[in-house]
Amino acid sequence: MNAARNDSAYVLPPGTEDLLRGVCADPFSVLGRHPNGRTDIVRAFCPDARAVKLVVVRPRAAPVERAMRRVDDRGLYVGTVPAGASYRLKIGWADGWEETEDSYSFGLLLGDLDLHLFTEGRHRELDRVMGAQVTEIGGVTGVRFALWAPNAFRVSVIGDFNVWDGRRHPMRLRHAAGIWELFIPRIGPGERYKYEILDQDRRLLPPKADPMALATERPPATASVVVDPHPFPWDDEEWMNGRAARQEDSAPLSIYEVHAASWRRPDGDPAGIMRWDELERTLIPYVVEMGFSHIELMPIMEHPFGGSWGYQTLGLYAPSARYGSPAQFASFVNACHRAGLGVILDWVPAHFPADTHGLARFDGSCLYEHEDRREGFHPDWHTLIYNFGRHEVSGFLIGSALMWLQRYHVDGLRVDAVASMLYRDYSREEGEWISNIHGGRENLEAIQFLRDLNGSVAHYCPSAMVIAEESTAWPGVSRPVADGGLGFAYKWNMGWMHDTLQYMSRDPLWRRYHHSEIMFGLYYAFSERFILPLSHDEVVHGKGSLISRMPGDEWRKHAGIRAYFAFMWAHPGKKLLFMGGELAQVHEWHADGELDWRGLGNPMARGVQGLVRDVNRLYRALPALHREDSVPQGFAWIIGDDSENAVFAWLRLAHGVPPVLVVCNMTPVPRPFYRVGVPVAGYWREMLNTDAQDYEGSGVGNEGGVHTTPDAAHGYAQSCVLTLPPLAVLYLSPEGGHA
Questions:
Q1: Could you give the CA distance from residue 53 to residue 75 in angstroms, rounded to a whole number?
Q2: What is the dihedral of CA 400, 402, 403, 405, to 10 degrees?
Q3: Any idea where the domains of the chain sit in the sequence?
Q4: Which end of the chain is less enclosed by CB atoms within 10 A, N or C?
């Protein structure tokens, strides 16, 4: 009887042959512990092992080793242990012995609530549940892997720990959620891994990187990397506690947009990239000294092709290894906060590249993208479009957004290409797109996704901000979701950028005929909470640099860019300037180069840099320039009809503080004795003159300020007689007076 029971241990269950052939969809039905009366049968599949032993753990005695019987030359071993006894595997490889717990002795890993929330797209801590998580189960430390691939036939974890052999660690499918899971003991941070997937036709797909990996290899390598689970030791409490006030619409928000790789190359190496610790030592002090409130980083999420500038992202949960480790990125954000700087990340939920190791046909099906190319292919960028209507995809994207805001204390996300998400016919001709269920062009699923995104951020990270790059007249982009809007904190004002750059690029002789270009943005300036963007998009693809767009000789070009920046900083709306603009960089930006720091040898370039520093200082110091930035009460025209002289004048206003008078002369002709009505009698101090000699201007101005005279003008009982410098902007404010 005992012999019969012992022989039964070596009767192989259904599915064994599939396991040995690498096509078993349920490895736990064959491998691991299986009760058999007073003993438990243990099966282990160890291809290429020379021997396998069971190490039976006894409570009050030394462990006992038992040799396992090899029952198939392909590497299947069988042994027995007393019922319920703990055991380990001792595997003999060609180069030695490995002792480890059995991955197939562990029970279900993810809880039912996690699975349920994931399938509904409502799990808001995916970075702590999915992917590779260092964890401890039953006193055993290892890595728990979890991957969404509902249409796969078989999924295995592959990595250095199993010599990238997909036979070694096939995973268990949790059918209710389409999630595969496996715990691999005794591996930890730093391990490289991917997933080996068979599709429903049992065809082997290219090895896939983990969509929710928290770290990756440095490109062009494509493996995912297990991260250290210990939280970063943050000491930015003061910043985080005061962040809400720093980012509300009454705050002076001035953003320096940065492409981290090309801001400055290390030690003159044209191919080198500064890592986060180097940027911490160099970029942060520079941005602080220049007076900006925030750094906005072009996408630093992992991306395979550097030439995409990060906008073709595949690792939405991983800081790019180009710049260092996740901990080093956290240290950079922490250092920004300690220096008084906020951090905004460009984030791309609109589309993704079709690299074979990425999301494209991830489990053999169009899992993250649409099957129909009229919905799933982006003709502009030749990328794939996320299927926002799929709950798991929406949850995957929102989980990424929340991770950057929570795990890394990031202060805001700028959502790229929102317009391409909102319209089903974006960049498509008739017949190349599919209407929504109502027959319209609006992408209803994307609209709901954006509302869910902003609602989730408002709930979990209420002091963070989400910014839309949206180039159309879609209504209510920055209106709360509860009021029918999309719920963004701010919207980039692309129309303002286009119109004003076009105006400034015109010969001053002809500006009188294009007066509306400089004025039009003020007709809708308060319809949204706007950011005025002079971004990287305006200095690439043959457009030239900002200063190269200014007409005239070198002096006029520098005078024009100084006037344009002062005009921008005094205009309603928060500010964004791409790196290099403040240097009056002559050449357009190239991502494989660096900023023209040597150009600061030109005193005129240093003058522009000094002007930007000073307008940032004044923007913070004068509440009228920022406090009522998003409401009509913060702005009042004084002169908007002097097209002949290309002169504009307006007031910036805020309750209880002195107003700021802004006067712009957009021609190279000085205009003496120019009368401007003002609301307060007394002395108006000249706070800024972009033609000052400190900025390498001609020095024409008003000797520090002017007194009003009791001559009515522009609807006010008193006025100032000003000298308007050529191609210049003046800021004046009354001493001690309120409007």
A1: 13
A2: 130
A3: 8-100, 112-226, 252-492, 630-734
A4: N
Dist CA 347 CA 128 (whole Å): 20
Bin 511: left if φ > 0, else alpha if -120 < ψ < 50, else beta.
Answer: alpha
What is 252-492's CATH superfamily?
Glycosidases (3.20.20.80)
Burial class (CB in 10 A: 0-12, 13-18, 19+), 715: exposed
Place 322 in a pLDDT band, splitting at 50, 70 and 90.
very high
Which of 469, 528, 614, 629 does the annotation list as catalytic? 469
CATH code of 112-226, in short, is: 2.60.40.10
Task: Report the DSSP pairing between strands 574-578 and 254-258.
Answer: parallel
Residues 685, 733 contacting (CB under 8 angstroms): yes
What average pLDDT does range 319-345 have in this prediction?
98
Q: Kindly report the CA angle at 223 between 276 and 180, in degrees rounded to 5? A: 120
CB 446 within 8 A of CB 398: no
φ, ψ of residue 19 in degrees (nearest 5)? -60, -45
Burial class (CB within 10 angstroms; exposed 0-12, middle 13-18, buried 19+) of 640: middle
| CATH superfamily name and code, 8-100 | Immunoglobulins (2.60.40.10)
Specify whether the CB–CB gap between 61 and 104 falls below 8 A.
no
Alpha-carbon torsion (511, 514, 517, 520), positive or negative? positive
Cβ atoms of 296 and 574 closer than 8 Å? no
Backbone angles phi, psi at 686, to 5 degrees: -80, 105
pLDDT at 1: 35
- 317 residue type, one letter: Y
Residue 416: active-site member: yes
Alpha helices in 409-544 (DSSP H): 418-422, 444-460, 494-504, 515-519
What distance in Å separates the CA atoms of residue 394 and residue 446, rounded to the nearest whole number? 9
Write out pLDDT tens, residues 131-166: 999 999 999 999 999 999 999 999 999 999 999 999
Can you give the pTM of this predicted structure? Answer: 0.95
Catalytic site includes residue 528 = no
Terminal C-alpha separation, the chain: 103
Local structure of 251: helix, strand or coil: coil
In whole angstroms, give the CA distance from residue 88 to residue 81: 10
Q: How far apart are CA 454 and CA 296, in angstroms?
A: 19
pLDDT one-digit tens code per residue, 197-251: 999 999 999 999 999 999 999 999 999 999 999 999 999 999 999 999 999 999 9
Cα torsion angle, 374, 375, 380, 385, sign: negative
DSSP single-letter state for residue 84: T
Query: Given 127, 411, 416, 628, which residue is catalytic?
Result: 416
Q: Is the peptide bond before 14 cis (omega within 30 degrees of 0)?
A: no
Fold of 630-734: Immunoglobulin-like (2.60.40)
Q: For 521-546, what is each residue's pLDDT tens digit? A: 888 999 999 999 999 999 999 999 99
Q: What is the pLDDT of residue 10?
A: 82
